[in-house]
């Protein structure tokens, strides 16, 4: 069904959607109806035409280009279930691969409900580890080396052995560089050249990182340990060297499904190729517009080149968005319409299938605490209007932004949870609760807690009351509230389970919990989610607050190349498409109250937020933009006390000499060191580079982009062109060397 322009038209009441199709996302934890039907054809009920095409195309290579919210997981799980139910696929011959334990757990849960419980659904690492554990004695001999759970401690020790001191941030970033090197199959000796060629923003000198990397590998060998990347590397090595083992795996697994294919790294693709051999029974699912992990080695090239590699492949596009309202989808499409590069050329124009909703809200605040307080107030209003706290999320660019929102939500009495915290089933209170439920199930009618309690939900509430659950949540936030929320999530899961299976017993529930624990399929905790945009990938909420949307944060300061900036745009796109109904976008003009209001809204919102010009509109030359930026209206006022400024030094600093300074002392010293090097190299007095007052003004403003730097008195057009890149890099915390400037 196509409209004249080639876009999918909206379905009428006479089409497949009339009374049949169900939401592609946000489904119940325990779906019933057609999902649990016995026939193969029943598995196809409720699928739209494109999802049905995915489900019924079981042979040959298949590429599914699936936009956000279009039901890709639904399509591929129903594909596997249809193949199993129709007898075309043997459950044990299918391997479904995805990227997170949560996604794999969700897929296993759906397949189990659809009657395809024997299918393996795992992450690349989990599947490889099982194969490595099984074949290691045969291929190598002895026991498999122990798995290193947290490599950061070994990286710290490696740095110490190399006499290279790493602070906490450098330690994390160097660890990330080692992971990138390994998934791109780069050995320590080759790291400097590979990192330079790839444009890596390395936290230390490349030679130093290579030295730490080599020492880290030696430490693991000395102690008989391997890390997660080694799991893939060793599996690849065995499959390449031992054709008998490779054939044994290929005999076992004959059909492959790969979700989130745009995030595949070169190493993962190599492993997939070895699993496949010369066969082409492969179904991949992805969206190039959601490629946000290139810093880990992920690349959308495998997805974009799929048709080149498999000219006979069936390609299906899923563009019907069941998740978000037309207003949210319109903004998401608008973001991608401004995108550039190869991924942008393959963007999907989403078509919302939901009823109309509220327009996205835009809010500007004077400073970050005010922004957090404003967001907390709006969240409190949404909860009062009936939106569950667990259906609300606050998403930010970096984890360091969470603290001010944690405080604001706590002050507002709003429960919250940090994404990426301890796994649900590993929490002490959850383990204790499950033990209590298992004990009560074994005791049956002999448990006094269950006297005169018949209904399953009531039984669970009675048992959990002995472990700390109550009908009313405790006041405030913190550990006590977190524990209550975990138990409340178990209560809600039991109630859902009882509704889906009215005859279920307490023993049935404990079996369900054991299966969910094995699958890491956790219930939803009822608290506002605080998460980074990267951590939010694959999740969705009724209401989403995208915060801190300023240039320098979105896109992040260290996104320098066009390719890096475009990935930042895709990251914002992922954030927007997490929202079902309510979407709020906000930014603060200053970091702290009373600070200089030098920040600007994210350039990605230009032409989308009310009152903003489209990108490039009236841009003019760089000199013209700087000239416009310097126009001042009215007298210059002290940004601290508000007094009119007249002295040249005060005008440069935009504050009275005796007013308190918020200057970053460390930044000021780094700027002075850089200036001294420039002065020596160019054979001129230091003040000819920048005066002390200008350096102080830069250190106080800490500009994140050229427009902000150009606003500082003493930074003229010529100096901006000559020194701007260095100064902005120093302000971003990067190392800058001398001797690479042009003489212009």
Write the layout of secondary structure elements.
Elements: H1 40-44, H2 49-56, E1 62-66, H3 72-85, E2 94-98, H4 101-113, E3 120-123, H5 124-139, E4 146-147, H6 152-161, H7 168-183, H8 191-198, H9 206-222, E5 225-226, H10 228-241, H11 243-252, E6 255-258, H12 266-276, E7 282-286, H13 301-304, H14 306-309, E8 314-318, E9 320-321, H15 326-337, H16 342-345, E10 351-352, E11 361-365, H17 368-384, E12 392-396, H18 402-411, E13 416-418, H19 428-443, H20 456-464, H21 479-500, H22 506-519, E14 528-532, E15 541-546, H23 562-576, E16 579-588, H24 622-630, H25 648-653, H26 665-682, H27 692-701, H28 706-710, H29 717-731
Parallel strand pairs: 1-7, 1-8, 2-3, 2-6, 4-5, 6-7, 9-10, 11-16, 12-14, 12-15, 13-14, 15-16
């Amino acid at each position: 069904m196509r409209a004249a322009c080639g876009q999918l038209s909206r379905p009428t009441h006479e089409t497949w959607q009339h009374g049949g199709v169900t939401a592609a996302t946000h489904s119940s934890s325990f779906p019933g109806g057609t999902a649990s039907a016995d026939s193969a054809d029943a598995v196809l009920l409720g699928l739209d035409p494109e999802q049905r095409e995915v489900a019924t195309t079981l042979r040959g290579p298949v590429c599914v280009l699936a936009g956000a919210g279009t039901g890709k997981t639904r399509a591929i799980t129903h594909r596997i279930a249809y193949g199993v139910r129709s007898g075309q696929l043997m459950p044990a011959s299918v391997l479904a691969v995805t990227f997170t334990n949560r996604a794999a757990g969700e897929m296993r849960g759906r397949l189990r409900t659809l009657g395809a419980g024997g299918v393996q659904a795992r992450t690349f690492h989990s599947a490889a580890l099982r194969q490595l554990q099984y074949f290691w004695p045969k291929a190598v001999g002895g026991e498999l080396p122990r798995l290193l759970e947290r490599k950061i401690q070994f990286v710290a020790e490696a740095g110490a052995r190399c006499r290279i001191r790493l602070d906490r941030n450098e330690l994390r970033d160097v660890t990330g560089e080692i992971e990138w090197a390994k998934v791109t199959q780069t050995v320590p000796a080759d790291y400097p050249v590979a990192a330079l060629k790839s444009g890596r923003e390395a936290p230390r000198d490349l030679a130093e990182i290579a030295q730490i990397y080599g020492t880290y590998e030696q430490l693991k060998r000395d102690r008989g340990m391997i890390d997660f990347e080694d799991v893939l590397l060793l599996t690849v090595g065995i499959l390449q060297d031992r054709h008998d083992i490779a054939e044994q795996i290929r005999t076992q697994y004959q059909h492959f499904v790969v979700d989130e294919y745009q995030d595949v790294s070169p190493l993962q693709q190599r492993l997939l190729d070895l699993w496949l051999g010369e066969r082409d029974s492969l179904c991949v699912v992805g969206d190039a517009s959601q490629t946000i992990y290139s810093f880990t080695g992920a690349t959308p090239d495998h997805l974009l080149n799929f048709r080149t590699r498999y000219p006979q492949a069936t390609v299906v596009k899923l563009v019907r968005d069941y998740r978000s309202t037309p207003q949210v989808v319109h903004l998401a499409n608008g973001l991608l319409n401004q995108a550039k590069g190869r991924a942008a050329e393959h963007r999907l124009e989403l078509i919302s299938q939901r009823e109309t909703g509220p327009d996205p809200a835009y809010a500007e605040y004077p400073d970050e605490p005010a922004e957090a307080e404003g967001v907390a107030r709006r969240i409190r209003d949404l909860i009062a209007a009936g939106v569950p706290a667990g259906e609300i999320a606050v998403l930010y660019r970096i984890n360091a932004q969470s603290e001010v929102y944690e405080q604001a939500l706590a002050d507002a009495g709003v429960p919250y949870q940090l994404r990426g915290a301890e796994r649900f089933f590993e929490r002490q209170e959850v383990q204790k609760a499950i033990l209590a439920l298992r004990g009560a199930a074994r005791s049956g009618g002999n448990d006094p807690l269950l006297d005169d309690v018949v209904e399953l939900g009531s039984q669970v509430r009675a048992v959990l009351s002995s472990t700390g659950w109550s009908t009313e949540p405790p006041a405030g936030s913190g550990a006590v509230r977190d524990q209550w929320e975990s138990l409340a999530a178990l209560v809600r899961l039991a109630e859902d389970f009882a509704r889906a299976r009215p005859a279920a017993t307490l023993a049935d529930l404990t079996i369900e919990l054991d299966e969910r624990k094995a699958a890491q399929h956790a219930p939803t905790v009822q608290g506002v989610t605080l998460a980074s945009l990267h951590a939010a990938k694959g999740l969705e909420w009724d209401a989403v607050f995208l915060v801190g949307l300023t240039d320098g944060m979105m896109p992040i300061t260290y996104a320098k190349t066009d390719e890096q900036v475009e990935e930042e745009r895709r990251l914002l796109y992922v954030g927007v498409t997490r929202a079902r109904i309510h979407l709020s976008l906000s930014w603060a003009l200053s970091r702290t109250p009373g600070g200089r209001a030098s920040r600007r809204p994210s350039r990605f919102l230009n032409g989308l937020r009310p009152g903003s010009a489209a990108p490039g509109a009236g841009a003019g030359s760089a000199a013209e933009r700087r000239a416009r930026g310097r126009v001042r209206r009215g007298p210059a006022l002290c940004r601290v006390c508000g007094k009119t400024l007249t002295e040249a030094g005060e005008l440069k600093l935009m504050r009275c000499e005796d007013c308190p300074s918020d200057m970053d002392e460390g930044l000021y010293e780094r700027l002075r060191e850089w200036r001294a090097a420039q002065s020596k190299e160019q054979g001129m007095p230091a003040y000819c580079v920048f005066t002390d007052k200008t350096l102080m003004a830069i250190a106080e403003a800490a500009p994140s982009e050229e427009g902000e730097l150009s606003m500082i008195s003493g930074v003229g057009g010529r100096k901006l062109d000559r020194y701007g890149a260095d100064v902005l890099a120093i302000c971003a915390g990067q190392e800058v060397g001398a001797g690479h400037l042009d003489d212009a």
